[in-house]
From TrEMBL:
This is Pentatricopeptide repeat-containing protein At1g08070, chloroplastic-like. It comes from Vigna radiata var. radiata (Mung bean). It comes from the Eukaryota. GO terms for molecular function: RNA binding. One of its GO terms (biological process) is RNA modification.
Amino acid sequence: MPSPPLARFTFISSKLLAFCALSPHADLRYAHTLFSCIPFPPLFHYNTIIAAFSRRSSSPFLRMLNDIVRPNACTFTLLLSKASPSLSFIQQLYSLILRLGHLVNPYVATSLVATYFNHACTRVVRRVFNKSPNKNVACCTSLLTGYCNNSLVYEARKVFEVIPDKKRRVVQRNGLWLHQKRPNNSLLASVLSACAAISAFEEGKWIHSYVHRNGELEYHEVELGFTLMYYKLHEPNQEP
């Protein structure tokens, strides 16, 4: 255990803490003891200990706020994605995220969307998504996957139809506005899996036509998604 004077050196203590908390040889008890020896832990130390104690991260987070250490986007992403927080804690985090302006970060928004979906808060999810100014493909994928997992195929299709693309062009048949980003292969595979699970054949065929128009069929995960969908929907004559 480093002496108190040594623990004051941020660089040394941060390396030791990261090794004790996050390395393959991690010792969480030792990491917690080391963290307790640091009189004024900086933000990096807090984020490290929050990442390590995923299911008990609310305690160091509260100490962080009491020490007047301002959480950053990484802090909120760790709390939401690793901690499996309660709904009341998520709501408190959401209020703090809005107050500190971190909803602008797409990773924070994506984590919020996924966490709210874990509690089946579908209406709140859409409000979070609409308020987020920087919606990247990961955020769109998280929203779409959450809708599909909750059997909300109509809502998922509406999201899919407005996913933007950099070329700002329109796909002819369904009016899919593409003006900042394109749906990626993970998103397409998620939708196909959901279509197969709930027998949404028409939606699956619509995605099939979209993929043919945009040349995504060469990717194995998308091709596998079509194979599984047509197999589950008993359409042996329809080849992906």
